[in-house]
Specification:
The complex is a heterotrimer.
Chain A lengths: L1 E9 L4 H14 L3 E6 L9 E9 L13 E4 L2 H7 L8 E5 L13 E5 L1 H7 L6 H13 L4 H11 L8 H15 L3
Parallel strand pairs in A: 1-4, 4-5, 5-6
Antiparallel strand pairs in A: 1-3, 2-3
Chain B lengths: L23 H15 L5 E5 L7 H4 L3 E4 L5 H11 L4 E7 H7 L1 H9 L5 E6 L2 E2 L5 E2 L18 H4 L5 H6 L4 E8 L3 H19 L4 E7 L3 H4 L3 H15 L3 E5 L9
Parallel strand pairs in B: 1-2, 1-3, 3-4, 4-8, 7-8
Antiparallel strand pairs in B: 5-6, 7-9
Chain C lengths: L2 E6 H11 L4 E4 L7 H9 L6 E4 L3 H13 L4 E5 L1 H16 L4 E7 L15 H5 L10 E3 L4 H18 L2 E7 H5 L1 E8 L19 E3 L25 E2 L6 H21 L3 E4 L6 E4 L2 H16 L4 E6 L1 E3 L3 H7 L5 E6 L5 H9 L5 E5 L8 H15 L1
Parallel strand pairs in C: 2-3, 2-4, 4-5, 5-7, 6-7, 12-13, 12-15, 15-16
Antiparallel strand pairs in C: 1-8, 6-14, 8-9, 11-13
Classes of the chains: A alpha/beta, B alpha/beta, C alpha/beta.
Chain lengths: 180, 252, 378
């Protein structure tokens, strides 16, 4: 199986890091993985996105036109990628920053108030992890222990105290995405 | 009988290709004498330019590299970084250094690259047949300024020594001439100082040497030497433009 | 024991160079290869190497010339417009027979073009690029593991033949992250990787390739204290018979490369009716297409040149009697397809599909093109 995920948001929302953690976790899980950033002349602001692929077979193109899942952290990202999701795929969107919900009915759409939840946890920077949690809940891409290991690697030595809040953010994201 | 004059050991025993009356031979000799005196030929690596001195790699009795046009300072940079205890020098003309190689010389100087550049300025492209150089004097006729260099159309000559002396990287910048014996003696002194500074690790050094081109100037060798004194010296004043060891820094 | 570590293409290439013994890097910023010099600027001081940001690509390649002439393992990297600027120096490197490794992370052109992936520099890479009769060894990795391995090879091949070697990548390969086999150092002293990645990377040691016997660099200009005679690094030969002799020597060397260094990978070619020919990033996309076409029962294969020069004419030639048609796929208007046609020499039809300007072909596009070609040969 091959799962492609596009993660998109404002520069600074941590979409690149979120993607790298997913890719790393996939690798820890023994899968083939790739991570590919969008790169352009903009350095600040604008929209940033990356494509992560987690697969059983060797990965062909690290970029895809129609990913299995999209995580949109802001409105421009939703506008850009909603139509790209493969029929039957998954769309996670950040309802804290996106007031107009997606219209697609042939995919699984999940709203998560990523910024609000991150605020409640006392650190708005972990909104990306909330969204990642929602994605993990809906897709079962990689087991949680692989994500934990990736996060441990991702946090530098002097930031290991941030592990708890990141894990909490992922947990809250999972809960928010739970199908009632 | 005591030998009072001989070919420096650091010059290869062969006939060079320079025109009669050209001062390249004198300048080569001065470098070789300094190599002999300071005894660094066995760790010298020279870089020859494109221009009249393109065959310079044959004449010096040390390891040599032949660079692309204008790129000698970049090539020398690569060498010096690999052989930091080598004595690395470039030998470049005015077209090579002040026109096509302007970026390379400015940045090697700005980096304080610990190399020595001997810059031979005769205000003309010799090898290609007497075209206008960046250092051709206003009014001078060349094969590409047949009506004389018109500063309105062809701009002004570049004073390399003064320009590079504004940078913080160089340790020593001087302009000398070889149109008379006293000046040749002073030129030798400047070249020696430049190499001594490099050996001491002080940074980038450059000696600009005012030189002649009787062939392309259309003058006899003696007339050519006179032209240096009469026309070039007023535009290109001699002196030390930068010396990190001198308290005044620059004294003319 | 080796394990997989996640690395970014540009950084994996840089680290591979360092582990291959490269201690000198001269470069100039240009997207999409900036992570490579940035990585070198962090890493070189840790191994007592030299990173120097040159004033231009022109200066950088001439610093490479000087350093290579002094006997060092040296690298530069750039992207298309910068590689154009380096062509003068590359010609001089070839003429003076200096070993060096040049990386081109290709972007769309011509002119300033774009910064997105392309394969539009194939001609420049394999047909000479600069002036005069010369050839570069051109290696085209399709994934990061191969990039790491080929960088190591590139330094050896450069030294073996006294010839510049070009690694031809593209924006996809440079920018993507993918696992690479490596040993993790048990005593980490270094932090690898860029801002984000750096936090999750441990120092690595790539798997070692078998060591080659390499000739000593007795020709290097390191000063006469190191050798009995004066060494000269030079590409100038003014007399015509002398220069012809030098050229014949170079051609003899290139003939040896053609004989010994052709490399290619074949996938499902044994019973294929149509074989796709693609290199680098395009080949990995074509592979996806081939796998899905095979699942539909269609007999298609993939031939992937790893060396673009020498072009793997021998291996491709062996396929000619077995297949009905070839389909060359490139991120260009059709460059490598000319070498495919030369190798096939009219014996079979050679079709072409290409995207340009930074557009990356999808497996679906390649599949449908392949099905079209397949329909024509049945």
């Amino acid at each position: 199986m091959t799962f492609e995920v596009v993660m998109a948001g404002f520069g600074g929302q941590g979409v690149m890091l979120m993607g790298q953690i997913l890719a790393y976790a996939g690798m820890v899980h023994g899968k083939q993985v790739s991570w590919m950033p969008s790169y352009g002349p903009e350095m600040r602001g604008g929209t940033a996105n990356c494509t992560v692929i987690v697969a059983d077979e060797a990965i062909g193109s690290p970029v895809v036109a129609h990913p299995y899942a999209v995580v949109a952290l802001n409105r421009p990202s939703l506008d850009k990628f909603e139509s790209a999701v493969r029929p039957g795929g998954v769309l996670i969107y950040n309802e804290s920053l996106i007031s107009t919900p997606p219209t697609r009915s042939d995919i699984k759409v999940v709203a998560v108030a990523a910024n609000q939840i991150a605020d409640e946890l006392g650190n708005v920077k972990v909104a990306n992890m909330v969204a990642l949690g929602a994605l993990l809940e809906v897709t079962d891409l990689v087991p949680m222990e692989c994500i934990t290991e990736a996060l441990k690697k991702a946090l530098p030595a002097h930031r290991q105290d941030m592990l708890a809040v990141n894990l909490a953010a992922i947990e809250r994201g999972k809960q928010a995405a739970e199908i009632p | 009988m005591a030998k009072v004059f001989a070919r420096p050991e650091s010059l290869v025993d062969m006939q060079n290709h320079y025109c009669p009356g050209c001062t390249h031979g004198i300048i080569h000799r001065l470098i070789a004498e300094v190599m002999d005196e300071l005894k660094f030929a066995d760790r010298a690596i020279g870089v020859a330019p494109v221009g009249c001195a393109v065959l310079g790699y044959m004449y010096f009795a040390c390891d040599m590299q032949e660079a692309a046009h204008g790129r000698a300072p970049a090539v020398a940079t690569g060498i010096k970084r690999v052989v930091p205890d080598g004595v690395v020098f470039t030998y470049q003309g005015d077209g090579d250094l002040a026109s096509i190689g302007c970026a390379e010389i400015v940045h090697a100087a700005a980096r304080g690259e610990n190399i020595t550049t001997i810059f031979v300025n005769n205000g003309i492209y010799g090898m290609t047949g007497g075209q206008m150089a960046p250092t051709t004097l206003p009014g001078d006729k060349t094969s590409t300024s047949p009506y004389g260099r018109d500063t309105h159309k062809q701009g002004f000559p570049i004073r390399v020594a003064e320009m590079l002396a504004t940078l913080d990287g160089p340790a020593y910048i001087a302009r000398v001439s070889v149109h008379s014996v006293p000046n040749i003696v002073r030129a030798r002194r400047a070249i020696k100082k430049a190499f001594e500074y490099q050996i001491a690790g002080k940074g980038f050094t450059l000696v600009e040497v005012l030189s002649t081109c009787p062939t392309n100037w259309g003058l006899t060798p003696l007339e050519a030497l006179d032209k240096v004194a009469k026309d070039m010296l007023p535009y290109y004043p001699l002196g030390e433009y930068k010396d990190v060891e001198s308290e005044a820094g620059a004294k003319k | 024991m080796s394990e997989r570590v996640l690395m970014k293409g540009n950084e994996a290439i840089a680290e591979a160079a360092i582990q291959a013994g490269c201690r000198f890097f001269f470069g100039y910023p240009i997207t999409p290869q900036n992570e490579l010099p940035e990585y070198m600027s962090r890493r070189m001081p840790q191994v007592e190497g030299t990173f120097l940001q040159a004033e231009s690509e022109v200066a950088a390649i001439n610093m490479v010339y000087g350093a290579a002439g002094a006997g060092a393992r040296v690298m530069t990297s750039s992207s298309s417009p910068g590689i154009s600027l380096k062509q003068e120096g590359i010609s001089y490197l070839a003429g003076a027979e200096l070993p060096a490794v040049i990386v081109n992370i290709v972007r769309g052109g011509p002119g300033l073009g774009s910064i997105q992936p392309s394969q539009g520099d194939y001609f420049q890479a394999v047909k000479g690029g600069g002036h005069g009769d010369y050839r570069l060894l051109v290696l085209a990795p399709a994934n990061l593991q191969e990039a790491v391995d080929l960088v190591t090879e590139a330094f050896d091949l450069a030294d073996l033949y006294r010839n510049p070697v070009l690694i031809l990548g593209d924006g996809l390969l440079g920018q993507m992250m993918e696992p690479v086999l490596a040993d993790l150092y048990r005593n980490p002293v270094l932090i690898l990787g860029d801002g984000l990645l750096g936090q999750m990377m441990e120092p690595v040691e790539f798997r070692k390739l078998p060591k080659r016997e390499l000739p000593p660099k007795t020709w290097a200009t390191t000063g006469m204290r190191h050798h009995p005679h004066k060494n000269i690094i030079n590409s100038l030969v003014l007399d015509a018979p002398g220069l012809e002799k030098h050229n014949l020597h170079l051609q003899e060397k290139y003939a040896r490369m053609k004989l010994n260094e052709q490399r290619a990978e074949s996938l499902h070619c044994a019973d294929a009716e149509v074989v796709i020919v693609a290199y680098g990033s395009t080949a990995r996309i074509a592979k996806t297409a081939v796998m899905s076409l095979r699942q539909s029962g269609l007999k298609v294969g993939l031939f992937r040149p790893v060396t673009l020069w020498p072009f793997p004419v021998n291996a491709l030639g062996e396929l000619v009697p077995k297949v009905k048609a070839f389909l060359t796929v490139e991120m260009s208007a059709g460059q490598m397809v000319e070498d495919v046609k030369l190798a096939v020499n009219g014996a079979r039809p050679v079709h072409f599909y290409g995207r340009m300007g930074g557009m990356v072909p999808t497996p679906e596009e390649i599949s449908s093109e392949c099905v079209r070609v397949l329909g024509g040969v049945r």
